[in-house]
Amino acid sequence: MKFCPNCAAPLANRIPPGDSLPRDVCDACGSVHYQNPKLVVGCVPEWDGRILLCRRAIEPRYGYWTLPAGFMENGETAAQGALRETLEEAGARVEIIAAFSMISVPYVNQVHLFYRARLLDLEFRSGEESLEVALFEEAAVPWKDIAFRTVGLTLKHWFADRARARFDFHTEDLK
Amino acid sequence: MKFCPNCAAPLANRIPPGDSLPRDVCDACGSVHYQNPKLVVGCVPEWDGRILLCRRAIEPRYGYWTLPAGFMENGETAAQGALRETLEEAGARVEIIAAFSMISVPYVNQVHLFYRARLLDLEFRSGEESLEVALFEEAAVPWKDIAFRTVGLTLKHWFADRARARFDFHTEDLK
Hints:
Two copies of one chain form a homodimer.
Chain A: E1 12-14, E2 23-25, E3 32-33, E4 38-47, E5 50-56, E6 65-66, E7 69-71, H1 78-90, E8 94-105, E9 110-119, E10 130-136, H2 149-163, E11 170-173
Parallel strand pairs in A: 4-9, 8-11
Antiparallel strand pairs in A: 1-2, 2-3, 4-5, 4-7, 5-6, 5-10, 8-9
């Protein structure tokens, strides 16, 4: 059972008039409550050919390595969100170069968006959500201990693009 | 006053432990209710150098012209959402070529994402949310009657990219 955030009455789940999908509808106050996918925004922070990764201090995937990223917040742009997450999780100041990868993850209702970014200095440090933060060259990336498929794919695209000396924008869908 | 969708108790708005922003917090059941930006996904459908636009039959911007686009739904990829909106609003079947523009609109908590697309036939027709649907060459685009700034910017990028015979991925932030 779910309740209306506007009036606390019980919600019904059905297709509203003129719509095509079931929604949480309030018969008491007439409001409709939509659920939509969330954007996860982050960076691929580079320093001299190495990439900054964070080892997660939180679930899901505690102890696994990830790029700094998190849920985009209301009131910010996608790039501002990526900068904020990079500062929060890795204590790292970066300059964004360009959008790099956008991967839909429909089974968790998310779209993951990563920017290529340049570290401005080496004064990074673990935030509250990271156990450790470190720079990795390609051969040293802990491929078997990457937290999320979108992060692994983004890293693979990054090293492949660097090898051919041209960075593209990559879109992909996970199943 | 807002109420908890899980237990119907009144919500408080404050910063939860370990967080940095105020959230809707339920002291009765301990749940936290996040608000995040929404993705609006759509297409730039092309046929022989002309672009398909829809004249809106709904508010906001009733009577103004737009590209087919709408809120991405749970369970779909961004590209599937763009195809669905193009079919719903313009009755148009398209093939997606590539992601084309991504524009953050932080003052309404949205990110607008448009794909370049090729119309598969000319059997388009107005959906319930459109008054009319038509193909426009560049000189005929109703620039003063475009519904949204993200749509105007995307169309300008499209015609500029076509003129130089190279389509890029464009990211932008509105203020």
